[in-house]
From TrEMBL:
Taxonomic superkingdom: Bacteria
Name of this chain's protein: HAD superfamily hydrolase
Source organism of the structure: Enterococcus durans
CC terms in the record's Gene Ontology section: cytosol
Pfam families membership: Hydrolase_3
Molecular functions per Gene Ontology: magnesium ion binding; phosphatase activity
PANTHER family registered for this protein in UniProt: HAD SUPERFAMILY HYDROLASE-LIKE, TYPE 3 (PTHR10000:SF8), PHOSPHOSERINE PHOSPHATASE (PTHR10000)
Length: 272
């Protein structure tokens, strides 16, 4: 499948562009730089916050682009300028929703945390290891708050429910909250809660409109179910071989795995 024109490439990071060691391989990097040289916009689309991708932005030299370079963060809840993190598009979740979801999981093994633009919060004094992992990957400081604490004065962008036993509570949680929020399970141990209607496609559409690029000129890469919306938005949606079965059912093309330079393999076929 060849496109007449490619103007933008949307890249999921973890499990797609990054390998198991959370690095960009030299082959993937070379293919991305080749696309940039041809004037193709590279749009990182990730569940991570901006603080958690600064090093990747710099490695790919996206912050050196002459024009505004946008990244889609928090699974589409934010669109930000590559150079300084300035917010161009943002959705929010009210504080009482964080309270409600935290109470729902209070007597379980799972952890719940809220993410703002620059910090994470949890009521869990026994901090879940995956909350600690997310704090590290996102480069966001974590604060444990009391149940009697006043509402946060900062906008909550995303809420996460984390833990190995997530599958046990998924059905009742979806039954209770699916009409109120957009719910995405990005890993077996990660459930991401965002404002209703928010997903990677929503943030990506904003970025494309900013660049005045049609979705018919877009290719997108992903590995997990939270990438389905942008895979379906793109003219060509590409799943890496390590992607979920559900994602593969919705894609146009399957490339090699993230540990076998899948992004580079597909780009070599699609870009002269």
């Amino acid at each position: 499948m060849i496109m007449n024109k490619i103007s933008a490439i949307a890249l999921d990071l973890d499990g797609t562009t990054l390998n198991t060691d959370l690095k960009i391989s030299s082959a993937n990097k070379e293919a991305i730089f080749k696309a940039k040289k041809q004037g193709i916009k590279i749009i990182l689309c990730t569940g991570r916050p901006f603080n958690g991708i600064k090093a990747i932005i710099q490695e790919l030299e996206l912050n050196k682009d002459a024009e505004n370079c946008l990244v889609v963060t928090y699974n589409g809840a934010l669109v930000q300028d590559c150079r300084d993190g300035r917010i161009l598009y943002e959705s929010q979740i009210p504080f009482h929703s964080f309270e409600s979801i935290s109470k729902f999981f209070k007597d379980t093994e799972l952890g719940v945390h809220a993410m703002t633009i620059d910090k994470m919060y949890t009521y869990d004094k026994a901090i879940n290891p995956y909350t600690i992992r997310e704090s590290y990957l996102g480069n966001l400081p974590l604060q444990v708050i009391e149940e009697t604490a006043d509402p946060l004065q900062k906008n909550i962008v995303k809420i996460m429910v984390v833990g190995e036993q997530l599958y046990q509570y998924r059905e009742p949680f979806f039954a209770r909250y699916s009409e109120e929020f957009s719910l995405n399970q990005s890993e077996s141990f990660y459930l991401e809660v965002m404002a209703r209607g928010m997903d990677k496609a929503r943030g990506l559409e904003f970025a494309l409109n900013h660049y005045q690029i049609s979705k018919s000129e877009l290719i997108a890469f992903g590995n997990n179910d939270n990438d389905i919306s942008m895979i379906k938005l793109a003219k060509i949606g590409i799943a890496v071989d390590n992607g979920t079965n559900q994602l593969k059912k919705n894609c146009d093309m399957i490339t090699l795995s993230n540990d076998n330079n899948g992004v580079a393999h597909a780009l070599h076929k699609l870009i002269n």
